[in-house]
Amino acid sequence: MSIKIVVIDDENQIRRMLRIALASEGYDVTEAENGTQGLAAIVRQQPDLVVLDLGLPDMEGHEVLQELRSWSTVPVVVLSVRNQDREKVRALDAGAQDYVTKPFSVVELLARVRVCLRDHIKPEQLPVIDDGKLCIDLMKRQVTVNQREVVLTPKEYAVLSMLAASPNCVITQTQLLNQIWGPSHTTDTHYLRIVISHLRQKLGDDPTEPTYVRTESGVGYRLSVAC
Asked: I want to staple 32 with a disulfide (CB 3.0 to 4.6 A). Which of 37, 42, 159, 182 is the partner?
């Protein structure tokens, strides 16, 4: 399976140069010219790495990074003309793995991409849950029901993948809220209830007697599957 990279940059020449350079290394590249398109591409492609410019036309790259980190741990390499230390520190503190300033050496950028991928792509296989109807492939980040792909929002996928990582185990509401929404939202259980409701609907789960996403004594949720 090819390694997927999303490039978010508003400069067409930069995107073209990156597409050619990254494709020459065998990477599957998707381009986006603003933050909104970039986040949508990340949801759609579920990439292995993101290259992110900070000066985007519709929103700050820092905003993109903050939103992304609320539901994904995909490694991010920031690529920006801003060379002030405070910008670099801000991006790294917000969860970026690396920061490259423009103008840049393509050879150096490719080396930094390889380092990020080496550090974040693990050789061991993530679990695949398949009961003949529901299939959750955490390595491919793909969910299907009766062999038809289920389109999930970032929050829906984040909740389902966290449950699927520990099948048949109860994950508390606090754990889910803290991990996915952040420490300041651990009491916002209504967020979680809405996402769980949408998940059950998309998985074809009976909301009154769910087969898969079960509520456990009001404490949390459990993905019930045959092991």
From this structure: 37
